[in-house]
Design a protein that fits this description.
Blueprint (H helix, E strand, L loop, with lengths): L6 H5 L4 H8 L40 H25 L11
Length: about 100
Amino acid sequence: ASNVGCAVLRQQDFSTDELVTLSQDIDPMTESQLKYYPLTKRGERFPTADSEMEPILEPKPDSRREYLHGILQGISDVERDGFVALGELGASPKMPKLV
């Protein structure tokens, strides 16, 4: 269970309306250039056990859409890394199928 989650969106003051509006303009097949690890607080449990890990939410672009894209990609990257870790431990299938 990771400490990365969508609660970070509220911590970064995204409103529901803003999330709806901005997410409509994000192409999920286009990779963000931002490399975030959007923890909700210091410390991570899975897929990396590091009680001192700090959230990575910088650099912060001027565009809220770009910022949201980076955060959402960061969340999905952690999910992917979790599946990789589970696969290495013998979970089957190693990765879920792309739907």
